[in-house]
């Protein structure tokens, strides 16, 4: 996942970098490093984003 893709995923989920840091129990600086490409985004973080996307999609379908 590129930093741009990471930032887009956060935007799609309507969560800020500081909010995401709280969700995954890391320091805000860590999320900033992921977003700027200074650090590799760990696989479990990508999996968490995939899960969150799935939950949002299911929620949208239930609103019908």
- The whole-angstrom Rg is 12 Å
CATH architectural name: Orthogonal Bundle
Q: In angstroms, what separates the terminal alpha carbons? A: 32 Å
Structurally, the number of domains stands at 1
Can you identify the CATH class? Answer: Mainly Alpha
Largest sheet: none
Give the CA-based shape. elongated
User: Poorly predicted ranges (pLDDT <50, ≥5 residues)?
Assistant: none
Enumerate how many helices there are, as a single number.
Answer: 4
The helix content, as a percent range, equals: over 70%
Topology-level CATH name? 434 Repressor (Amino-terminal Domain)
The average pLDDT is 94
Element order, helices and strands?
HHHH
The portion of residues forming beta strands comes to: under 5%
- How many β-strand stretches? 0
Kindly name the structural category: mainly alpha
Give an overview in words.
This protein has one domain (3-62): 434 Repressor (Amino-terminal Domain) (Orthogonal Bundle), CATH 1.10.260. It contains four helices and no strands. The chain has 64 residues and is an all-alpha fold. α2 packs across α3. The model has no long low-confidence stretch (mean pLDDT 94). It has helices at residues 3-12, 17-23, 28-36, 43-62. InterPro entries: Cro/C1-type_HTH (IPR001387), Lambda_DNA-bd_dom_sf (IPR010982). GO terms for molecular function: DNA binding.
Give the arrangement of secondary structure elements.
Elements: H1 3-12, H2 17-23, H3 28-36, H4 43-62
Would you kindly provide a brief summary of this structure?
InterPro entries: Cro/C1-type_HTH (IPR001387), Lambda_DNA-bd_dom_sf (IPR010982). By secondary structure, the protein is mostly helical.
